[in-house]
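Below: protein 1.
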Amino acid sequence: MDDLSVYVEGWVVRPGKYVGPTTLGRLVAAAGGISPNAWGSITIIRTLVSGRRIVVAVPVRGKRADLLLEPGDVVRVANGDGD
């Protein structure tokens, strides 16, 4: 991958493309935070060089690890009903 971008979509104030690498916490902060309506999970989707995808889900609310994101990662913040 040529660029260092990471992406956030879903229930954040400013979804979009951000410069990485960064951590999950910093990305969410840069995106303006999680909407108060979001109560589902945060899903991190990482595509490996082989094309295989790794999906990691972490809770929206409560304690969570501040995971290091890699270029190309997509972070989805869900509101709990699939959105």
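Below: protein 2.
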Amino acid sequence: MFFKIGVSGASGQLGRAVVSELLLRGGGHEVVAITRTPQAGSGPAQRRFGDYNRPESLAEAYAGRPPKPLRDVLAAALQPLSA
């Protein structure tokens, strides 16, 4: 099962780590880094502008992301890495 995973706060310390970990684990998931500064990012994740102080920007940032139950996303994203 493949997921489209949007990570808000992706330019912060925790968000950056979450995006990196999701990309490291692979699995074919599409990772979208949502941040106030998408131009500052690097790496293979798609970057989109999103700012909690501008709620309309979040609707645009998450457009095309079908809602998934959190348990399904976490189960897919937190699988142990293969050695």
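The mean pLDDT is 80.
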